[in-house]
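Me: Here is a favour to ask of a fellow structure person. Could you put it straight underneath, so I can go through it closely?

Assistant:
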Amino acid sequence: MKLYCFSPIRSKEELFTAIRHVHFSCYQLCKQSFNNYFANAQNIGIFCHYDQEYAFLTKLRQELTESSDNINQKYFRLHEPIIIPAQGDVPETTYSYLYVRKPDPYRAQVGDIDFFVTPDEYETLKLEVEKGIPGARVFDRKDLAMIELYNPDIDALGYVSTSTVSESVRAKLSEATKL
């Protein structure tokens, strides 16, 4: 039995298949918890599960994105945005940033995306989540205020934060996880 749905990713086509999968899975997570979709922060992360996969996808990411001399940068701006057409009630979405995550034995998911809300909306959502919303939990990380969207039957993760936080996530790796 294959442990990971898409890994190892070995081609550009497989990467884009995984991106579409993460996209629709995360919108499903958002709908399951809030019966609503939030604005997309335009960044998508793909999680590697093997060192060779990480090496391949890092090289491919370098072809697809602008270079940077910032060694702590997490998300890289794509030369050509990835546009995923609307499907059903899931809106068309444009991704402008890509992140390739190092192998992490604690993350079997294919990847993640971020949704954003205003700071006031976030505080309201956070209170609702703390009272109990299936598939949503306040993400326990001191450096970011985020709500994590999850389902053990869905191999992707979604995050809801303020637009300010979404912008800062693009800029640097987590000090907490170094990923």
In short: Strands lie at 39-47, 76-84, 93-101, 111-117, 136-138, 147-149, 156-162.
